[in-house]
């Protein structure tokens, strides 16, 4: 393993590419919401949502560590082609890289939530499984839960952190078997809420964003108790 890699040869998160909604001097004492983009995208994509999210959160959008095969643009969290396509080991490796960035960049006392779209949602859920004591909640949009079991799944089931899972009824990108697996798996391990949005494809609608904001405000209310 090289000094610039963390897990299974996956490069570290590029600190210089992270987009923050607040400078360092304005982050202390505030909860952090980390945005995780999808396949072939970049850190600026979901960061466009920041102005629409509760202002109490510091928002950080990170860039996935891998590049998809030419001619696909942008960045990716794990391969979707070849023998490694949607491989649980590859998903765990990139989730470990994300957690390494979190350990290096964020005060351990800072409450952290993850919001991911598509591949980013998969990574967010896997990071939650790996470190249920560190990740307070996950918003998973148009994603799924990786296959397999992890040694930390029992701790996750004991904590049952809040997860919002949103997806479109006409999303033809996420395979039906991934949806079926997630539908069966999530209720046993997390406090699950969410919605299937009629007519929505592999994207985010205004109705979904409105529901995400309600979910995030509920997390803020819980932390204020």
UniProtKB/TrEMBL annotation:
Q: Which InterPro entries match?
A: AB_hydrolase_fold, LYPA1-2/EST-like, PLipase/COase/thioEstase
Question: Does Nucleotide-binding appear among the keywords?
Answer: no
Any keyword Hydrolase?
Answer: yes
| Phospholipase/carboxylesterase/thioesterase domain mapped to chain residues | 27-218
Q: Which GO terms describe its molecular function?
A: hydrolase activity
Keywords attached to this entry: Hydrolase
Q: Which family does the UniProt entry place this protein in?
A: Belongs to the AB hydrolase superfamily. AB hydrolase 2 family.
Q: What is this protein called?
A: Phospholipase/carboxylesterase
Origin organism lineage: Bacteria, Bacillati, Actinomycetota, Actinomycetes, Micrococcales
């Amino acid at each position: 393993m090289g000094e610039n890699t963390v897990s299974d040869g996956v490069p570290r998160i590029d600190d210089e590419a992270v987009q923050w909604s607040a400078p360092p001097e304005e982050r202390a004492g505030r909860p952090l919401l980390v945005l995780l983009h999808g396949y072939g995208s970049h850190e600026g994509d979901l960061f466009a949502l920041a102005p629409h999210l509760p202002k109490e959160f510091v928002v950080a959008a990170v860039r996935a560590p891998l590049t998809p095969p030419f001619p696909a643009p942008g960045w990716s969290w794990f391969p979707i082609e070849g023998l490694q396509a949607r491989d649980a080991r590859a998903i765990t490796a990139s989730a470990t890289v994300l957690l390494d960035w979190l350990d290096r960049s964020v005060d351990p006392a800072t409450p952290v939530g993850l919001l991911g779209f598509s591949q980013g949602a998969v990574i967010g859920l896997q990071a939650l499984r790996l470190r249920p004591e560190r990740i307070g909640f996950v918003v998973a949009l148009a994603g799924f839960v990786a296959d397999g079991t992890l040694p930390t799944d029992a701790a996750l089931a004991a904590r049952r952190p809040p997860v919002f899972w949103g997806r479109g009824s006409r999303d033809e990108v996420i395979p039906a078997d991934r949806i079926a697996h997630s539908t069966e798996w999530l209720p046993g391990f997390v406090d699950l809420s969410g919605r299937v949005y009629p007519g929505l494809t592999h994207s985010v609608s205004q109705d979904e964003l409105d529901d995400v904001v309600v979910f995030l405000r509920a997390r803020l209310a819980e932390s204020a108790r």
